[in-house]
Amino acid sequence: MEPINWGQAWSIVGGGLLTTFVIMTLLAVITNLLGKLFVSLEKRKEAQGGEAK
Amino acid sequence: MNWYEHHDGILKIMGVQMGFANLTLPQFIMILIGLGYIYLAIKKEWEPYELLPIGAGMILANLPLAGLTSQPEPGMSAGMAGVLGIILKYGLYLWTILPQFIFFGIGALTDFSPLIANPKAFLLGAAAQLGIFTAFLGALAVGLLVPEWGFSIKEACSIGIIGGADGPTTIYTTGMLAPDIMGITATAAYSYMAMVGIIQPPIIKLMTSKEERAIYMKPVLRKVSRIERIMFPLVATLLIILLIPKSAPLVGFLFLGNLFRESGVVERLSNTAQNELINIITILLMLGIGASMPAEKVAEPRTLLVLCLGLIAFAFSTVGGVLLGKIMSKFSKTPLNPMIGASGVSAVPMSARIVHHLGQEANKRNYLLMHAMGPNVAGVIGSAVAGGYFLGLFINF
User: Fold this and answer.
1) Cβ separation of A30 and B239 shorter than 8 Å?
2) Closest chain B residue to the Cα of A10, Cα to Cα
3) CA dihedral B142, B148, B153, B156 (to 10 degrees)
4) Residue of A1, A2, A25 lying closest to B123 (CB–CB)
5) Judged by CB atoms within 8 Å, which residues 243-282 of B form the interface with A?
6) Which of A2-16, B186-200, B287-301, B304-318 has the least mean pLDDT?
7) B122 close to A (CB below 8 A)
8) Chains A & B: contacts with CB separation below 8 Å
9) In principle, which of A46, B64, B352, B383 could form an S-S bond with B343, CB 3.0–4.6 Å?
10) What is the pLDDT confidence band of residue B257, given thresholds at 50, 70 and 90?
11) Chain A contact for B385 (CB, 8 A cutoff)
12) Would the ipTM clear 0.90, i.e. be above it?
């Protein structure tokens, strides 16, 4: 059994938590922006539909 | 000629050919554990789709002389490989394709709308991966206390990933990093997923006050349009895989299944992924997991340690989710029940149901299911990301 390199172990933990949070935060931001974009597009479409009527 | 001499030949044949004469104590223990799983599945209805075939796999694999777990080898005579051995070799150890197809089916079954409607839930899904890294450190720390029981870094990654509460991710990651302990980690992951109703409530109650659990959240989330539901798997696949390429086998298949579902144009394929395919793969995978638990290792201290560390991982994942839930609750403009953080572990949908149930227990008006489903499906993504991160450190395809 090789001795554990604790420096490597802690960097794996730090890197892992950071990676997970960064990716999930990016997903949250992109999803939020896409949501806002599509909601506003839908509202505009509805408004245009209302005017046409 | 006495009775024994007269029946000598028959007794010898019985000694060689009868299972009873060849049954070892570890095999007997494994058969008892298998029976226990079947009992829990039938009597308690704990995750029966998983526990029943796992239990059956354990029993079948540990019947002496049956040869069901003989893996195909070059030069082996025709028909000598056992069916469970073929599942183990090609489905789990060599090709590791079964977990990916399970993810494909999960993607086709999952409605990501609660997450798309409330993207903050992504953060809760990330926080609930805390247990993965806690158990990783715990597994390494074992070697400090008792060096001969110590785990390597790769084994520690595989043990930690149990904390994601995600069976396929655990199997895939362990299969790639530490196949020797796959039977134990996979069994632990599915067992704890089945016991999520016992593990999570006391931790949630310990970490939250009754007032916090009673926080009322409006039961309605915004309606998510079809185009958003189609865009989501595409955007998420590209983003995650471009950042962590090694997560592709899991994340790619999860979102491929989801794209089939949300596209609305391949209904037959989506239905197959949601039903026949996932059912067939579940049978093969669960039988394989049951068969992969080696009898000779069942009573070893390292096996028991993996089970303990898996439980610690599960507990800390719940703690991580609830902690971030509490922080978000303090700063959120709209009321946020911190308990929904606990559903960030990816035991879908059990974890969300538990949070919903606890919410109703504290406040009858509460209907937290949809709010808890967001972090719950985010947890599936989070654990696949963490698994891909571990693989990226050690595996070069």
Assistant:
1) yes
2) B137
3) -50
4) A25
5) 243-244
6) B287-301
7) yes
8) 107
9) B352
10) very high
11) yes
12) yes
Helix (H, G, I), strand (E, B) or coil at B67: coil
CB contact under 8 A, A1 and B239: no
Residues of B in contact with A39 (CB under 8 A): 222, 225
Give me the pLDDT at residue B294, please: 76
Token pair for B251: 């994340």
Chain A residues with CB inside 8 Å of B381's CB?
Answer: 24, 27
What pLDDT score was predicted for residue B355?
Answer: 97
Report pLDDT for B397: 60
Count of beta carbons in the 10 Å neighbourhood of residue B309: 27
Full-model pTM: 0.92
How far apart are the two ends of chain A, measured CA to CA in Å? 77
Distance CA B61, CA B57 (A): 6
Q: By the 8 A CB rule, do B291 and B87 touch?
A: yes
By Cβ distance, the residue of B130, B137, B244 closest to A19 is: B244
Q: What is the pLDDT of residue A53?
A: 66
Amino acid at site B190: Y
Nearest CA distance, A52 vs chain B (angstrom): 23
Chain segment B103-116, per-residue pLDDT in tens: 999 999 999 999 99
**Do residues B373 and B221 make contact, with C-beta atoms less than 8 angstroms apart?**
no
Record: contact A26-B239, CB cut-off 8 A: yes
Sort out which chain B residues have CB atoms less than 8 A from A1's CB and list them: 143, 147-148, 150, 152
Helix B153-160, helix A6-52: angle, nearest 10: 40
Q: Per-residue pLDDT for B12 more than 80?
A: no
| Confidence at residue A1, expressed as pLDDT on a 0 to 100 scale | 66
Q: Is the pLDDT of residue B9 over 80?
A: no
In 3-state terms chain A splits into helix, strand, coil percentages (rounded to 5) of 90, 0, 10
**Residue with the two structure tokens 């990676």:** A19
CA distance B339 to B341: 5
Does the distance separating the beta carbons of A31 and B126 come in below 8 Å? no
